Structures are given as structure tokens and as C-alpha cells.
């Protein structure tokens, strides 16, 4: 019998905080990470002029510290290292570990400048070789800058080295539900008994002319023209679309028994059950019955009733269709309880970081459980009566036992997951490094 | 011990439609490569010969209006994936309404570069003189849904439609040739956890762009000659030969297959994909893990064996440390088809187990004895009446970033066909 799957470590690099603690404080204070995009001329696009950006100084610092083949890899390493430290990880692990990771960082660049340089190179090559395949190869061979494989990354090998053991690794993609899907894969891996320790991480950084223009074509982005900090307003009647965002997050998942054997008694959250589904009716539009289905499945798999759930950590993208669909599904599932269920929507401050959003929003869910505070949705100042969900403009403090988290995505992706407050929730404190050595020695002796 | 069986396979390759076509091509030493320096009729004039899929072998369902309306969301990879999955469903059968939610899809492919390769270089040149801001130019000139078409799991939604498998859909990508077995390992966990009863695993290796081929060539030199003596494990091998393909494996819990009255083709004992600090460590760990769940040593090793000067050695050293079974490989016949390579090998190994035959390694003439004392099958097929188990391995394309390897063990124990 495998013991509970628990979150023992968390790491975050987001537009509103480069650590879990700073990210959480920004969530409580309603500090926005959204701003007008000023490095690309987007003035002719019909939407998407606002973006959630990790501050340049943070990126520079992370790149200097972690290097890597790309900014995406550096962000991944930074988030993973935070999570390992938070989990009080120390080599050696007794067995193979797991790694389930998500990365959306185009090979053509992850920033406006990188993309412009990519396009310059493409133009030079096109002028020299046109569409002639052999000439393209000759051109590439003759030029010094080596082409890189789009998916090339050192991350699994680096994490294997960092953990000191081989890792059962899979890089997955499930559009904007990728974060929750990754956690489900990690939990299955733990429950298989083949590993006791899994890192789940996601990094999304794709702030380019191409990506913005393509989401613009889909008319999925916010058309808000007033203060950019208000551009993402889940469940507000003025909402007009989502805001693209950069983010990276990481979690350490392990079995409770393994955590205890390492000397880690206090954990962030206990994973309950989940519901996953695929809809084939439409490529991009959400459907109420599918959202309802995954939430009901998550509750059933957690052996939880609707009365057990204290708060909803919504997908809440700020698009007209997503928010109304999610709200109606919530009403269908929770009925009259919706009047008392607090709903939080992290994308109101960060924007939408695709698969990484699922991870960083689960960090908020875990802290909500441990600290008994539901963050506000400060941009929802004119709640949409059609959504009729209960959001707050200030943090709502009260005991929280269970959180339901939703994530949905293009391609008919639906995921819902339950997290519970652990018996020994992680207390808010910084570990004194000098006191860790004894704990770690004890943990090692238990593991051996 | 797993309780998972293989109930259907579908492969589209240079050999045609079906795993049996590959087995036949290997057995009869067919030559399926075209292009490369020796081919004067090749219009592309690329330096590398390739085993190409015949477009006529890729069929798209015509029975449903939904498909017609949604082809705009389907790139070439999606078409190939649907064709392979449809083939696997011929024996495994689609899901009906009752089991749809307990059936899922796992894709293995790289993110689609198709539209970008065709369009972006021309637009990049245009942007040098066009007065429009770059974002505006791309907004106006890139064809609709180009971005959506390139999303890997988007292809999985098409598989969900054609199969009726709607319980889960996730794509594994970026693992190159280890990706197919990585996808299968996720599928196995979905089934063994009891979460789902059936999973369709689909891998796709569509035509690569010249830029992608050049990048692969730079990380590990690709073979420029598809000729006798240039195949896997040969002392004169000169690098992997590239292939195109799509492959689908229908996996199912044994009790579900029994309930539905579908006879299994084989049993999947174990499958794992592992990354190590080095590729050698990854192969060793994957093989060790898989063999730890086996009753005994495998009867045949279906090696990754891609013809790489370096990787063939790494693979043989890692596997040879524990076993020295009879060895074969598909890649001298149909080339290295990256994300679906492992799935193709599983499908062909299933076919071989049921026919009790081990086909020879294509283009292998003089085994490289430095690889170890392996019993490489060459020249002609070998009858193997007691053939029951096969070990399959798949490795990432060698580069400083690729340290992933997958391994699977299948057996025909319990198979009834």
C-alpha cells in the first residue's frame, strides 16, 4: 500500500515574484505583473497589447546563475533548485527518481529580441538559398552558428546529475492543462512503487511576435485598453480575453512515508484525486459538461463530497467563454454551496502561463491550505452576474481543508484536481541551514 | 508483472501499411531508401538517403462530416497519426460509448515545424522591406490555425476522435527516438493504476526539414549511403539512416480485453524510459529495470541499432553487460523514424513473435566485433519456434543533450492469435 502523495517542495519564478514567498505575498497584496508590451509594436493587432513578464533583472540573474541552452532551461533549473531546497533534499536518494516536465520555449526565441534575430537569420538564409533544400543545407553547413534541435535540452541529464540517480523522465505537453497532467503522471509514477521522489516542473516563456500574432488570430487575448494591471479580470463582466505570461514553477512530490524517512514531517499539501478528460467537439472552445465531468471525477476519486471543498482555485483565464463555462459548471456541481465557496483566480495578477500556470497556481493552492488564506481577485471589481462566483478584493482568512483546482486547454484538454490540508502543514518559516545537518543525518540513516 | 496486453498495431512506413510489411521487407532484404548523393533522380538533392512514406498509404477517414470541417486543424503529422491509429483499431476496435471515458491517448512527436518551415523564411525576407510591424505582418500573412496545428497534443485530439478514446490525452515530446517508449511507459502506468482500461499510443516521424536534418547531422553524423555494409552494427557503418513513419500500439488491460472478447497479440511485461547523467547510464538503467520484471532472459533483442558509430557501441556495451541474446534491428530497412521508432519495433517484434521468425538486420554485412560477441541476425531470416520474449530498446539521438533511453519487454505468453 503506497502512502499519501504529498508536496514537500515548491519553487516559483513568475512576473510577481521570483520565490514562493514573494509570489505568495504578491497574491495576497494584489500586486500585478502585467504591463504594456513595449518591446514589440503590437499596435495593429486587434488584441493582446498587455503581457505578464518576469522582470529582466530576475532573468539576468537566473541566466548568470544557471546558464543553460535557453532562458527556458535556466528558469526550469532555478525553479527546481528552489523546490529541492524547500524539500530539504540532499543526496543520495536510495533509488531512481522521477521527472515529469513541461517546457514551452520556442526554438525561434523566447523574447522579442531573440525572435527578431531569428528572423534576420531566416531572411539571410532565404535570400541565399530560397526554398532549395540542398542549398539550405549547404548554407547551414557553411555558417558558424550551429542550428539547434527545436526540442534539445540538457534538463533531464542535469537533474539526474543533481539528484545523483537516473530519473524516469518524460517531457509532456497537454496545452494549458499540462501542469495538472504532469502532477497526475508524477502521482501515478509514485503509486507504481518504482520511485519515491518526483520532480514536476514547467517553464513557459514565449514572448515573441509570432506567438502574440497567432493568439491574436484566435482572438483569445485581452482587448483591454485602460490600465494594463486590470487587463486580466477573471469573472468580471468587462473581461475580454487572456493575457499571455511567462512563468516557471516546480514541485517535489513524494510519498508521505518517504518524506518522513528523510526527516520531513511538515508538508505543503496532500494530493487527493483528479479527473482528466478529452473533448472532441471543438479545438479551442471549452464545454460546460466536460468541466463538470472532470470536477465530479476528481471529487469521486478523492472520496470527497461537495461539502468537503472549501475553496476553488479556478482556471479563470479572463476570456468570455472560459469563465462563463467554468462558472456554470461550478454551479452545476456545487449548487447552493457556490454562495459560500471562495474562488481565487491567480491569472488576474500573473496572466496566463499555459502549462506553467497549473504549477504556480497549485503553489497558491498549497499555501492557501497551509496558511488558511484565500487570495483576492483584485481585478474583479465588477463581478459578472452571469458567472456569479464569490471572489474577494482582500484576502479571506479562514480554515481551509480542501481545495479544488481546475485547468483546461486547447485540444479539448480538461483537468481537475483535489488537494487537502496535511496533518502537519508546513509552517511559514525559513529553515536555519545550520540546524539542517542533524536532521539530514537522521534522514539518511532512516533511508539506509 | 504487468497485466497489459497489446490488442492492435498500426504502422505506416516506407515498407507500406502494417508491421507485417516491415517484417517481410527485412526478411527479403528489400531496399526502401531513396535520395542521397547516389540518387540522380532525387529532386531535393539532400546529402542523406531516406526511407520515405508513400503518401498514398496515408488515408483520412471520410465517414464523418466532423473530419471534413476540422482538417484545417490537422497538419501532416496529424494525418499520419490518424492513419496509423485507424490501422491499429482494425483489430483493437474503437471505443463505444460505455468505455470511451476509460480509454485514452498518448502521443509521441516533436512540436510541428511544418508551417513554419514552409512559410516563415519567406516572411522573414519579406519583413526586411515590408513597412508593417513584424507582429502585424505575421498576423496578416501566416495562415489561420498554423500555431494550433503545431501543438503536439492537438494531434492527440484527432486520435481521440477516430478511436473514441476520451479519458485522457497527453503528448510526450522532445525525447527523439526514446519518445515512443516514453509514451508507452506513461500508457502502461495509466493502465496498471486502474485509471484506464485502454490506451492508444501513437508516434509520428513526418518528413524533417532540411534545417532539422542539418541539426541532427551536426549532433551525430547521418549516413549518406544506404548500401550493404552501411547498416547497424556493421564495422563500416557511417551513421544513422533517416526514415519517415507513423506507428500506433493499442494497449489494454488484460481483463478489459477478455471482457470485450478481443484476443491479445502479445503481452507488454514492462516498459520504462530513463534519463541518466550519460546515455550509457540511461540504457543500462532502463534495461536493468525492464529485465528485473522478466521471468528470464529475452529470446531476442530488438535493438535500437541505428547505425550510429557511437550509439551502437553505447547500446551494445550497456545491454551486453547483462545479456547476449540473438539481435536484430529494423533501421537498416526502414531507417530511423525518431519519435515512433520504439513503437515500430514493438509492432514488428509482436509480428515476429507470432510468426516465430527473427528477421535479419538490413544492410549488415560484417558485424563489428568491437561491439561484443552478439548473435546478430544477417542475410536471411531465422526460424525460431520457441520464440516467446523480445526486449526492445530505443535511444535518444546522440548529442550532448540526449541522455534518454527506453526499454520494453513483450511476450506472447497468453496471446491467443
Tags for this model:
A: 448 residues, alpha/beta, Peroxisomal Thiolase, Chain A, domain 1, 2 domains, 3-stranded mixed sheet, 14 helices, 19% strand, globular, B: 417 residues, 12-stranded mixed sheet, 17 strands
Topology of helices and strands:
The complex is a heterodimer of chains A (448) and B (417).
Chain A: E1 5-13, H1 20-29, E2 34-36, E3 50-52, H2 56-66, H3 71-86, E4 97-104, H4 112-129, H5 133-142, H6 155-163, E5 167-173, H7 178-191, E6 197-204, H8 209-217, E7 244-245, E8 247-255, H9 256-261, E9 269-278, H10 288-301, E10 311-313, H11 320-334, E11 342-344, H12 347-350, H13 354-371, E12 373-374, E13 396-397, E14 402-409, E15 413-420, H14 433-447
Helix pairs in contact in A: 2-3, 4-5, 7-13, 10-11
Chain B: E1 4-13, E2 16-17, H1 19-27, E3 33-34, E4 50-51, H2 65-70, H3 76-92, E5 103-108, H4 114-127, H5 134-141, H6 146-149, H7 152-163, E6 168-172, H8 179-192, E7 198-205, H9 210-219, E8 242-243, E9 245-253, H10 254-260, E10 266-275, H11 279-291, E11 300-302, H12 311-320, E12 326-328, H13 331-334, H14 341-355, E13 357-358, E14 375-376, E15 382-383, E16 389-395, E17 404-411
Parallel strand pairs in B: 4-8, 5-6, 5-7, 11-12, 11-16, 12-14
Antiparallel strand pairs in B: 1-2, 1-9, 1-10, 3-4, 7-9, 10-17, 13-15, 16-17
Helix pairs in contact in B: 1-14, 3-7, 11-12
Short description:
Chain A is α/β, with parallel strands linked by helices. Chain A has helices at 20-29, 56-66, 71-86, 112-129, 133-142, 155-163, 178-191, 209-217, 256-261, 288-301, 320-334, 347-350, 354-371, 433-447, and strands at residues 5-13, 34-36, 50-52, 97-104, 167-173, 197-204, 244-245, 247-255, 269-278, 311-313, 342-344, 373-374, 396-397, 402-409, 413-420. In chain A, the strands form three sheets. In chain A, strands 5-4-6-8-1-9-15-14-10-11 form a ten-stranded mixed beta sheet.
Amino acid at each position: 500500500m503506497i502512502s499519501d502523495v504529498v508536496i514537500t517542495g515548491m519553487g516559483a519564478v513568475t512576473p510577481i515574484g521570483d520565490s514562493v514567498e514573494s509570489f505568495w505575498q504578491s497574491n495576497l497584496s494584489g500586486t500585478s505583473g502585467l504591463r504594456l508590451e513595449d518591446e514589440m509594436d503590437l499596435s495593429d493587432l486587434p488584441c493582446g497589447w498587455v503581457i505578464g513578464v518576469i522582470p529582466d533583472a530576475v532573468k539576468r540573474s537566473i541566466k548568470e546563475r544557471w546558464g543553460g541552452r535557453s532562458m527556458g532551461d535556466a528558469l526550469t533549473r532555478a525553479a527546481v533548485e528552489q523546490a529541492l531546497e524547500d524539500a530539504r533534499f540532499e543526496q543520495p536518494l536510495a533509488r531512481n527518481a522521477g521527472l515529469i516536465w513541461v517546457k514551452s520555449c520556442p526554438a525561434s526565441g523566447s523574447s522579442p529580441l531573440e525572435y527578431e534575430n531569428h528572423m534576420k537569420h531566416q531572411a539571410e538564409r532565404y535570400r541565399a538559398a530560397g526554398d532549395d533544400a540542398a542549398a539550405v543545407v549547404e548554407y547551414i553547413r557553411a555558417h558558424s552558428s550551429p542550428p539547434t534541435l527545436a526540442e534539445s535540452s540538457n534538463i533531464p541529464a542535469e537533474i539526474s546529475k543533481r539528484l545523483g540517480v537516473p530519473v524516469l523522465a518524460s517531457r509532456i505537453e497537454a496545452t494549458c492543462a499540462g501542469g495538472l497532467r504532469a502532477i497526475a503522471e508524477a502521482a501515478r509514477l509514485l503509486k507504481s512503487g518504482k520511485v519515491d521522489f518526483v520532480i514536476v516542473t514547467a517553464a513557459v516563456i514565449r514572448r515573441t511576435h509570432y506567438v502574440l500574432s497567432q493568439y491574436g488570430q484566435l482572438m483569445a487575448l485581452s482587448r483591454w485598453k485602460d490600465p494594463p494591471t486590470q487587463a486580466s479580470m477573471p469573472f468580471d463582466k468587462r473581461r475580454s480575453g487572456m493575457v499571455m505570461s511567462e512563468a516557471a514553477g516546480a514541485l517535489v512530490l513524494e510519498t508521505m512515508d518517504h518524506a518522513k524517512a528523510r526527516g520531513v514531517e511538515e508538508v505543503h499539501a496532500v494530493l487527493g484525486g483528479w479527473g482528466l478528460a478529452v473533448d472532441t467537439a471543438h479545438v479551442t472552445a471549452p464545454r460546460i459538461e466536460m468541466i463538470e465531468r472532470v470536477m465530479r471525477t476528481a471529487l469521486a476519486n478523492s472520496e470527497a463530497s461537495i461539502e468537503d471543498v472549501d475553496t476553488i482555485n479556478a482556471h479563470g483565464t479572463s476570456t468570455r467563454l472560459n469563465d462563463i463555462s467554468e462558472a456554470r459548471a461550478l454551479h452545476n456541481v456545487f449548487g447552493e454551496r457556490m454562495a459560500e465557496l471562495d474562488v481565487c483566480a491567480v491569472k488576474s495578477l500573473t496572466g496566463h502561463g499555459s502549462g506553467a500556470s497549473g504549477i504556480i497556481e497549485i503553489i497558491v493552492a498549497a499555501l492557501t491550505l497551509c496558511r488558511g488564506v484565500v487570495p483576492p481577485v483584485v481585478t474583479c471589481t465588477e463581478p459578472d452576474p452571469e458567472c456569479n462566483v464569490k471572489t474577494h478584493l482582500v484576502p479571506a482568512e479562514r480554515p481551509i481543508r480542501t481545495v479544488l483546482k481546475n485547468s483546461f486547454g486547447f485540444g479539448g484538454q480538461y483537468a481537475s484536481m483535489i488537494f487537502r490540508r496535511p496533518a502537519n502543514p508546513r509552517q511559514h518559516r525559513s529553515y536555519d541551514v545550520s540546524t539542517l545537518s542533524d536532521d539530514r543525518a537522521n534522514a539518511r540513516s532512516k533511508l539506509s | 508483472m504487468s497485466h497489459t496486453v497489446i490488442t492492435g498495431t498500426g504502422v505506416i512506413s516506407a515498407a507500406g501499411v502494417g508491421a507485417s510489411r516491415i517484417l517481410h521487407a527485412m526478411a527479403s532484404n528489400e531496399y526502401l531508401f531513396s535520395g542521397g548523393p547516389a540518387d540522380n533522380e532525387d529532386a531535393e538533392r539532400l546529402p542523406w538517403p531516406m526511407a520515405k512514406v508513400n503518401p498514398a498509404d496515408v488515408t483520412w477517414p471520410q465517414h464523418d462530416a466532423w473530419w471534413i470541417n476540422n482538417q484545417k486543424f490537422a497538419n501532416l503529422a496529424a494525418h499520419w497519426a490518424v492513419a496509423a491509429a485507424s490501422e491499429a483499431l482494425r483489430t483493437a476496435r474503437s471505443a463505444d460509448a460505455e468505455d470511451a471515458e476509460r480509454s485514452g491517448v498518448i502521443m509521441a512527436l516533436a512540436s510541428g515545424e511544418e508551417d513554419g518551415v514552409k512559410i516563415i523564411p519567406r516572411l522573414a525576407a519579406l519583413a526586411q522591406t515590408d513597412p508593417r510591424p513584424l507582429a502585424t505582418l505575421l498576423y496578416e500573412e501566416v495562415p489561420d490555425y498554423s500555431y494550433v496545428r503545431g501543438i503536439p497534443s492537438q494531434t492527440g485530439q484527432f486520435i481521440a476522435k477516430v478511436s473514441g478514446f476520451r479519458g485522457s490525452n497527453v503528448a510526450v515530446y522532445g525525447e527523439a527516438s526514446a519518445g515512443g517508449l516514453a509514451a508507452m511507459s506513461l500508457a502502461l502506468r495509466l493502465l496498471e493504476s486502474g485509471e484506464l482500461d485502454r490506451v492508444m499510443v501513437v508516434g509520428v516521424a513526418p518528413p524533417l526539414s532540411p534545417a532539422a536534418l542539418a541539426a541532427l547531422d551536426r549532433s551525430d553524423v547521418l549516413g549518406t549511403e544506404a548500401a550493404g555494409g552501411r547498416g547497424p552494427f556493421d564495422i563500416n557503418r557511417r551513421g544513422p539512416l533517416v526514415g519517415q513513419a507513423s506507428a500506433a500500439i493499442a494497449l489494454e488491460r488484460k481483463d478489459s480485453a477478455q471482457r470485450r472478447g478481443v484476443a491479445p497479440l502479445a503481452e507488454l511485461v514492462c516498459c520504462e524510459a530513463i534519463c541518466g547523467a550519460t546515455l550509457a547510464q540511461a540504457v543500462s538503467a532502463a534495461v536493468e529495470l525492464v529485465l528485473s520484471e522478466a521471468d528470464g532472459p529475452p529470446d531476442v533483442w530488438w535493438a535500437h541499432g541505428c547505425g550510429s558509430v557511437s550509439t551502437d557501441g553505447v547500446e551494445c556495451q550497456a545491454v551486453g553487460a547483462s545479456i547476449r541474446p540473438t539481435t536484430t534491428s529494423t533501421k537498416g530497412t526502414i531507417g530511423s523514424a525518431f519519435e515512433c521508432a520504439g513503437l515500430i519495433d514493438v509492432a514488428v517484434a509482436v509480428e515476429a513473435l507470432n510468426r516465430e521468425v527473427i528477421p535479419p538486420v538490413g544492410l549488415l554485412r560484417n558485424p563489428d566485433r568491437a561491439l561484443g560477441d552478439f548473435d546478430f541476425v544477417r542475410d536471411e531470416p531465422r526460424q525460431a519456434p520457441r520464440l516467446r520474449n523480445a526486449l526492445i530498446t530505443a535511444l535518444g539521438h546522440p548529442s550532448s543533450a540526449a541522455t534518454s533511453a527506453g526499454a520494453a519487454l513483450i511476450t506472447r505468453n497468453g496471446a491467443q492469435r
